[in-house]
Amino acid sequence: MPVIHNITQLSELSRIIKSKSGYSMTIGVFDGVHLGHKFLINETIKVAQNKNYNSCVISFSNSPYHFLTKKNDSNNYLSTKDEKTDILSNYKIDDIFLIEFNNEIANTTAHDFLNYLNTSSNLKFLTIGPDFSLGKNKEGNINYLNEMQNIFDYNLHITKPYLSQKQIVSSTLIKKLINQKNIIGANKCLGYFYNLTGKVIKGENRGKALNMPTANLLINQKKFIPPEGIYACKVKYKNKKYIGALSIGKNPTFGNNNPLSIEVHIVDFSKSLYNETLTIEIHEHIRDQITYSDIIKLKEQMQKDLNNIKKYFKNE
Q1: Which in 28, 109, 217, 239 has the greatest CB count within 10 A?
Q2: CA geometry: angle 35, 37, 43, nearest 5 deg
Q3: Which residues pair with 219 in a beta bridge?
Q4: Could you read off the pLDDT of 166-207 as tens digits, one per residue?
Q5: What's the fold here for domain 3-168?
Q6: Which residues lie below 8 Å from residue 186, measured CB to CB, with a gap of 6+?
Q7: In which residue ranges of the chain is CATH 3.40.50.620 found?
Q8: Distance CA 312, CA 306 (A)
Q9: How far is it, in rounded angstroms, from Cα 285 to Cα 282?
Q10: 169, 176 in Cβ contact below 8 A?
């Protein structure tokens, strides 16, 4: 199990015990911890094992891009900080450093950044992707990091882009695929099912009136939400998984000014779930949200959706 360090200043690295053998390290935001990230991390671990180094992942807990551009980062992250930590903890890494990207980090030169890593953690091997850069104004690009190897006594390994379906896997690509409702393609790039985790809250009880009760979820506002629509999903609750129908939308049949709701109907499940935490694994987009002229037509469509979802999982 990795040791997790939450820090807000690079100088805090000096409080952490320096590895006598040295660190094999990789650095990045690692939003979603997709297959491209997995490749980088496994390469880092492989070097550590072969060279008898400690392995280390340095990840920013927030988006450098949104911090620097001062853009709102709501509905932005494929994985929240806690979700990313949980995923990274499943790797055989010795240490995980979660750094808050702030003004101090933004104004740290590439030279000073490397100096912190060298003096505080004994950096010996750095594994990065081909588009990586660090330091103020991204001055620590591939060429710069190559030149600094002898000065800071580390080896640099630049991996090739990781491809899926002939496309370079990135967090940006995955969000694009999700926005295009290509959930299967996004999941292939992630290496797992994209998911939403939240606490069950009180809703309007419309599902119960439609003979299809739903659990309304409160999702972290930073989490990237798929487009409005109906999705085939699996619901994780207390170490069990259930087939579900996920609805993301504003319930247009019931008016034009409804807030966005995220609710799930769980097949063959009747227990009250208020205040419980559910994780929704999204498997496939079934259809867009539709405004119906009456409740009867809506109920008929909801039953068709449920039948289609059951068939989907039967054939999966």
Answers
A1: 217
A2: 105
A3: 198
A4: 999 999 999 999 999 999 999 999 999 999 999 999 877 776
A5: Rossmann fold (3.40.50)
A6: 174, 177, 178, 194
A7: 3-168
A8: 10
A9: 8
A10: no
